[in-house]
Amino acid sequence: MSTTPGRSAAAPAPVTVRVPAKVNVQLAVGGLRPDGFHDLANVFLAVDLYDEVTAFPAEPGEGPSVTCLGPDADRVPLDRTNLAVRAADALALRHGRSPDVRLRIRKEIPVAGGMAGGSADAAGALLACDRLWGTRTPREELLAICAELGSDVPFSLVGGAALGRGRGELLTPLDVGGSFHWVFAVAEGGLSTPAVYRECDRLREERGPGAGADAVPAPEASPVLLAALRCGDAKLLAANLSNDLQPAAVSLLPALDDTLAVGTRAGALAALVSGSGPTCAFLAEDAASATEVARVLRAEGVCRAARTATGPAPGATVLSPAQ
Ligand code: ATP
C-alpha cells in the first residue's frame, strides 16, 4: 500500500463538508418567553448557496483554530466565538477528547444576513470533525448538539424544507413538490438577530395596551403555505410568504423597502426580508425571471450583490473524502 509523500501514514485526510443557506418562507413570532426567546413557527427552505467547511488534522493538544476565505471573511470572528470552533469544542467535549482541528471556511453565505451563515458553519464543522476524528456520533446526538449551538443549526444539518417549532430547533421535515427560483439581494452591512427581535417586541409594545408581546397569538404554520410547498406551486407560495420580523428589520434599516420594491417591479412574484435580514429574498416564476430580477437589482444599485439560487437544497453533505 502506498502513502502520500510528506504525510504520516496515521494522519487522516482532511474532510470537506458543504452546507446550505436558508430562507424562511414563513416566520411567525410568538410573544417573548421568560427565558428571553420567542416561540416560533418557522418554515425553513434550504437554498443552493453554500459555505464549505474543511477540517484538517492538527497536532495532539493543539486545540481548534479557524481561517476564513471569501468576500465577507473580514467580518467573521476567528477566535473561540466562531460558531464552527464552538461546534468542534462541543463535539470534543461530548467524546471527552481534545478538540484538535484546523478549520477552514469558504464563505459564500452573507455574514449577519438572515441566511443562517454562522449556523451553517457550525453544522458543517460538526459533521467534518465527526468524520475527521472517527467519533461516529449518532444522528440524534448530532442534532442535540446542533440545538445547543443555536436555534437554526439543526436545520443547517438537515436541509431540504422543515417546520421549526420552539425556538426553531424542533424540526418536522416537509415535503416539497418542486424547485423554487430565488434571488437574494445582499445588503451592505448586517443586522444583529437579537437587535431585530428586540425591535419586534418594541414595535408590538408601541401598538398600545392589548397589542403588546403578552397579547401575541401562538405562532402557527400556514396550511396554505405548506400546501404550496407540497405542490411546488410558486404563485401560491408567493401569495403566502410571511415574516413577522420584516417590520422590525425595515424599521432598523428603512432602505430595505426600496430594495423590496425594486425587485417586485422587476417581475418577482413576491419579496420578503430573509429571517432577521437585511438580505432581501425574491421568489421568481422561473430561472429566466430570477436572472432578470437579479440584473435589475444590480443595475439599480439597491444591494451589494444579487445572487440567484434554487431550493430546496440538501443539508450538510460530506464532499471529500467520498462517502
Ligand atoms: P440567522 O439567520 O441564523 O439569524 P445570520 O445569518 O443573520 O443568522 P450569521 O451570518 O450567522 O448571521 O452571523 C451572526 C454573527 O455571528 C456575526 O456577526 C458574527 O459575528 C458571528 N459569527 C460567529 N461565527 C460565525 C461564522 N462562522 N460565520 C459568520 N458569522 C459568525
UniProtKB/TrEMBL annotation:
Q: List the InterPro entries.
A: GHMP_kinase_C_dom (IPR013750), GHMP_kinase_C_sf (IPR036554), GHMP_kinase_N_dom (IPR006204), IspE (IPR004424), Ribosomal_Su5_D2-typ_SF (IPR020568), Ribsml_uS5_D2-typ_fold_subgr (IPR014721)
Q: Which residues form the GHMP kinase N-terminal domain?
A: 82-160
Matching Pfam families: GHMP_kinases_C, GHMP_kinases_N
Q: Which reaction does it catalyse?
A: 4-CDP-2-C-methyl-D-erythritol + ATP = 4-CDP-2-C-methyl-D-erythritol 2-phosphate + ADP + H(+)
Q: Which residues form the active site?
A: 22, 152
- Give the UniProt keywords, A-Z: ATP-binding, Isoprene biosynthesis, Kinase, Nucleotide-binding, Transferase
Q: EC number(s) for this protein?
A: 2.7.1.148
Q: Which annotated residues bind ATP?
A: 110-120
- Give one GO term, molecular function aspect: 4-(cytidine 5'-diphospho)-2-C-methyl-D-erythritol kinase activity
Which pathway does the UniProt entry assign to this protein?
Isoprenoid biosynthesis; isopentenyl diphosphate biosynthesis via DXP pathway; isopentenyl diphosphate from 1-deoxy-D-xylulose 5-phosphate: step 3/6
In this chain the GHMP kinase C-terminal domain maps to 226-301
Q: What class of enzyme is it?
A: transferase
Primary role:
Catalyzes the phosphorylation of the position 2 hydroxy group of 4-diphosphocytidyl-2C-methyl-D-erythritol.
Please state which protein family the record places this protein in.
Answer: Belongs to the GHMP kinase family. IspE subfamily.
Q: Which NCBIfam families match?
A: ispE (TIGR00154), PRK03188.1 (NF002870)
Name assigned to this protein: 4-diphosphocytidyl-2-C-methyl-D-erythritol kinase
| Species, as recorded | Streptomyces desertarenae
